[in-house]
Amino acid sequence: MNNQNDFKILIIDDNPAIHLDFQKILKIRESSVALNKLNHLVFGDNIEDDLKKSEFDEIDFPAFQIDCVSQGEEGVQYVQRALEQGAPYALAFVDIRMPPGLDGIETIKRLWALDEEIQIVICTAYSDYTWEKTVAELGLSDNLLILKKPFDSISVRQLACSLTKKWRLMQESKNREKILEKTVEERTVSLQKTLAVLEYQSTHDSLTKLPNRTWLVDRMRQEISRAQKHHSMFAVIFIDLDRFKLINDSFNHETGDILLKLIAERLTEATRNEDIIGRLSGDEFIFISVSAEIHKIEHVEHIAKRILDTINKSLHIGHQDIIISASLGISIYPQDGSTVEELLHNADLAMYRAKGLGGNQFQLYTSELQEKCIGRLEKESDLRRGLIENEFFLEYQPQYDSKNQKLIGVEALIRWQHPQKGLVLPTDFIPVAEETGLIVPIGEWVIQTACTQNKDWQDKGIQPFPISVNIATKQLIQPNFATMVKKILKTSKLEPKYLKVEVTENVIINTENVIESINELKKLGVSIVLDDFGMGNSGFNYLNKLPIDQLKIAQSFIKNINFNRSDEVILQAIIDIASNLHLDLIAEGVETPAQLEYLESHNCHKFQGFYFNKPMSAKRLEHYLKI
Questions:
Q1: Residue limits of the EAL domain (predicted)?
Q2: Could you give the residue ranges of the DSSP H alpha helices within 389-480?
Q3: N or C: which end of the chain has fewer CB within 10 A?
Q4: Span 532-543, pLDDT tens digits
Q5: Which has the closest alpha carbon to 91: 70, 110, 65?
């Protein structure tokens, strides 16, 4: 069948003449005289006239493919074969009596058993099967009609047209239903995939692909329920990368993202099947260990050390080799908390304790940490208030040249006059200021105050000398740091050559932001001092890369003069390096005549320390200089 108007019709009748008549009627062909006589006997007197009357319908009349069989069993075989070939019959005309085989009723039962959609017309001239009996045997169906003999050609054609069209509509409806079902199925699958993606996105970090806070909190609740049921324990390890913000700001955010992904991969590789690793936020990760040996403290410590070793390996990103460490805080269920919030909070406190001790280590939660945390928050609040209330002030420690026997500069040192605690030294508040970022506004205040004071001394006729200020890491990486210094120099009217900025080796890491800031300061005419030289991990390679003017020998080397031969060797090496590179050199922390004598005998003649003067107020220094 080539188009939607083609239909297959099956004639099941034991009379071959009937086969021919059906073909002639349904194919609208001229009947021979001989056939007309037979038609007259079977269908009545008017068949020839009916054929002539209906010839005008030929144009729109459906094209039927007609197959004829003589027995019911054979008809069943035809229908089965047609189904297997994917070309089912739309309609079957079935004779009620077809001896010696199946009768029409049994044949129809078998046809419908194969194809319940085939339309059936029972052809009979007998009354042995009434309508009631037929319905009783076959059931009431709109796929069944009875055509009594004799019947005319128009009735046959009408039945054929109507029933095949009905069958076609049924097929189209069925196909539409299948298409709809397929569409619904496809959309359901698509929706399920979308929901799966959305669920994954809502529970996993987009950068590292690790479980996020939402997933971790839910999983921790599950672990708490499991632990309660089995009276077991589990450990929560809070991981925070050391100096990540510095690396992120110094390089760029893309480098920071790559670093986080690499760390996530390393942690995942180091995680056993029963362990859980996720990203809490920023540079914070959570490691949950449900090992049966968590009750052993040495097992928890072993896990923490394994995590530290995993993170500490060098990372190659772009053209940089970066070594990063982490601070770990550990809380254990149920002894350190019975809820997710308590466990995370206490692990966080322990992590901050590890970071406060220098990082690259782990700390277990103890109840004392809560008290220390409260103290830290109070100190942070005090710092903010102190900055607003102008509780900070500067003292100045002179620097001398023993060759010329004269003052060559001063270092500005910040102090805090707390209204309740009295005088607070930098060692007690600078770490908190750096951690909270308050060092940036505090540091700006120091530069402003020092420059203004130095210009004031000059205006009072005191011989000009440079003033040194210490610069913290977070200050130096500020994108507008050099611009801020330039503005202060302009407003204070202090010449740049009378300002020195002191930075430590640990501040100077090989990053574009830091190098750019130092170079910009140098272009302004500000001198660069490398403070605590010899104590950092950078080595001496930065001396060739950065515009350093002066090296300041770390106080620890001075303290060990005549006591530690190794430190004396390093001290001599530093003096030689400064001499060979034509760098100015000054020793800080000189407190005894023996230290002074040793340094002078080894070609170091610039000093700062208690041996000469303790830090003093601006007024006292002014008086001292006028003597």
A1: 376-627
A2: 426-436, 439-459, 473-476
A3: C
A4: 887 765 556 667
A5: 65
Work out the average pLDDT over 598-620.
93
pLDDT band at residue 31 using 50, 70 and 90 as cut-offs: very low
Q: For tokens 């069943």, name the residue.
A: 76
- Which is nearest to 414 in space by CA: 375, 441, 380? 441
Whole-structure pTM value: 0.54
Cis peptide before 398 (omega within 30 of 0): no
Q: Name the residue with tokens 């479980």.
A: 211
For residue 28, is pLDDT > 70? no
3-state secondary structure of 302: helix
Amino acid in the structure at residue 341: E
Among 355, 419, 433, 368, residue whose Cα is nearest residue 391: 419
Residue 38 has a pLDDT of 46
**Whether residue 466 has a cis bond before it, omega within 30° of 0:** no
Q: How far apart are the C-alpha atoms of 287 and 278, rounded to whole Å?
A: 7
In the numeric block, which tokens belong to residue 517?
Answer: 């800031």
| 387-423 tens-digit pLDDT | 999 999 999 999 999 998 899 999 999 999 999 999 9
Query: Which domains are delineated in the chain?
Result: 6-175 (3.40.50.2300), 213-365 (3.30.70.270), 378-626 (3.20.20.450)
- Alpha helices (H) in 140-212, listed in sequence order: 153-203
Cβ neighbours around 592 below 10 Å, total? 15
Cα 64 to Cα 56, 91, 145, 160, 520: the distances in Å are: 17, 10, 19, 9, 95
Mean pLDDT of 251-260: 88
Q: What is the DSSP letter of 30?
A: P
Phi-psi region of 393 (alpha: psi -120 to 50; beta: other; left: phi over 0): beta
Coil, helix or strand at residue 394: strand
Q: Are strands 361-364 and 422-424 parallel, antiparallel or unpaired?
A: unpaired
The DSSP-derived string for 347-378 is HHHHHHHHHHTTSSEEEE--HHHHHHHHHHHH
Answer whether residue 39 shows pLDDT above 70.
Answer: no
Q: Which two tokens stand for residue 165?
A: 């069209």
- The residue-averaged pLDDT of 185-197 equals 91
Section 560-583 average pLDDT = 86
Contact 134, 105 (CB under 8 A): yes
Burial 294-325 (b: 16+ CB within 10 A, else e): beeeeebeebbeebbebbeeebebeeeebebe
Structure tokens, 581: 């590179």
